[in-house]
Amino acid sequence: MHPMVKPALRRAWRERQTVQFGVTPAHAVLVGPVDTATGSFLELLDGTRGLPLLRERAHAMGLPDGLADSLVERLSAAGVLDDPDEDGPAAEGLRKRTGAFDRLRPDLASLSVVHREPGAGIRRLAARRAMRVQVRGAGRVGAAVAAVLAASGVGRVDVLDGGCTEEGDVAPGGLPAHSVGERRDIAARQLVRRSAPGRPPSAAEYGEPCGEAEPGLSLVIVAPRDGLAAYAPDPATAEPWIATGTPHLYTGVIEATGLVGPLVLPGGTACAECVARARAERDPGWPRMLAQWRSGHRTPSVPACDLGLATAVAGLAAAHALSFLDGDLPASTGARWEASLPLLDWRAERVTPHPDCSCGAAGGQEGVRMADIGASHDTMAG
Fold it and tell me: Structure pTM?
């Protein structure tokens, strides 16, 4: 290990013997008490020295024996240090793809802050390359979500949609103006290819022998151009995902309301059928109205989709998807987040498993986030 203070954590002295790494409360770490010699030693943690050399330098600076190891251990536990030499075939493969790696360095810096242990950031970034995500919808929300996921290093992003690109589908970060008139699936495929940092992974990189079936889906994102299908998802559409245990996330814009969630973990959190049953119990007239809307009764010829709202929704949905793919359970797990124009006040509604639903989530234990979100983020490391 060549210990390095995480570059994303800005450093400042709170007072003469206390140094703070990080700015925001979510990631800030206080280290103290720190005398002048120890402060100078902290400057050596730049990833160019291994522990044997750090011990020598600490001894030359008059620091007590064992302090170098102790400080490195405590700073690592506090989430301050990274290991730029993290090994493993996936991490090494990512480093060798120089151009792609440079594109992803800001993402790596963010992951290093979110995941505390040294080397965790690059392991997760490298793992994304072996993942496959399906985005169902290539409108203003879906296309942008697909582009962000591809640009963030997800190895395979498939986009499903029908028809041809229309002028109203065009959006910054999504389908470009020159794709108008092209088939949506082809335009979306080209967008994903342009957004990705490098070539797509081979079958071997997915862990599959050449000629074998393609890798399973890590996640399905339902982002229909008609936001009604995300706001009131059809349980029949989700049946194959429930049967195969495929996680899926709903997102979209309907009228002037954007939504992200719920993220459904089959058998663990509420599914589309749970949502439908709960809504019908609260509002007996809802199923009748929903049947009319789904049949095309008074469907607007041009569904409302504010560009700023759609962009915000796509960004949040992509961030929730990446959090899940990286091994966490984001706030959309078993919950739907909504924001409406003009105030854009994001609010969350918990979606609980329905006891009469066949998905089985009501009989299990709902997932909890892997990170201890209730714990304090400020840690005294010294």
Answer: 0.88
